[in-house]
Design brief:
Elements (H helix, E strand, L loop, with lengths): L8 E7 L2 E9 L4 E3 L2 E2 H4 L3 H13 L6 E8 L3 H19 L4 H7 L29
Parallel strand pairs: 3-5
Antiparallel strand pairs: 1-2, 2-5, 3-4
C-alpha cells in the first residue's frame, strides 16, 4: 500500500531579488529555512518576528510546520519574502484570514527594486564628475 503524502500548502513570496518558497503542513511549529533551524539562519530576533508575525496574528505558531527555501537578496529582503509566502499560504488554506492580513499589508508585494544603471552615467542617476577645464 502506498503511503499518502502529508497535505502541504505552497506559498511564494518575493522582495527585491529574494524569492521564498514556503510549504506549510500541520505540525508542531517547527520552522526550517534552507535545511537549517530558523534560529541558525536568522540570528536576529526582529527578523524572526517579521517571519512569524502572520502566524502570531492568528495564534497558530504551534499548529503548522514550515519548510522554506529562499534564495537571492539579503536577510532583510528574505525575511519579508518569507512573510509574504506564509501569508499567501495561510490565505490558500483559509480564505477568511485574507481581510486581516491585507489590512496589515502582509499580502502586498513590495515592488521596489534597484534601478538599473544607465549608459553615460556612473550609476542609475549619479553622473561622472564634471570638469570645466
Amino acid at each position: 500500500m502506498a503511503k499518502k503524502k502529508a497535505e502541504e500548502i505552497l506559498g511564494v513570496g518575493r522582495r527585491k531579488t529574494a524569492v521564498a518558497s514556503v510549504r506549510i503542513r500541520k505540525g508542531n511549529g517547527e520552522i526550517q529555512v534552507n535545511g537549517k533551524k530558523i534560529f541558525e539562519y536568522f540570528p536576529l530576533s526582529f527578523q524572526r518576528n517579521i517571519i512569524t508575525s502572520p502566524l502570531k496574528l492568528f495564534n497558530c505558531e504551534k499548529k503548522y510546520d514550515l519548510m522554506v527555501r529562499v534564495k537571492g537578496g539579503g536577510l532583510e529582503a528574505q525575511a519579508v519574502a518569507i512573510r509574504l509566502g506564509i501569508s499567501r499560504a495561510l490565505v490558500t488554506d483559509n480564505d477568511d484570514l485574507k481581510g486581516q492580513l491585507k489590512d496589515l499589508g502582509y499580502l502586498t508585494r513590495d515592488a521596489r527594486k534597484k534601478e538599473r544603471k544607465k549608459y553615460g552615467l556612473a550609476g542609475a542617476r549619479k553622473r561622472f564628475q564634471f570638469s570645466k577645464r
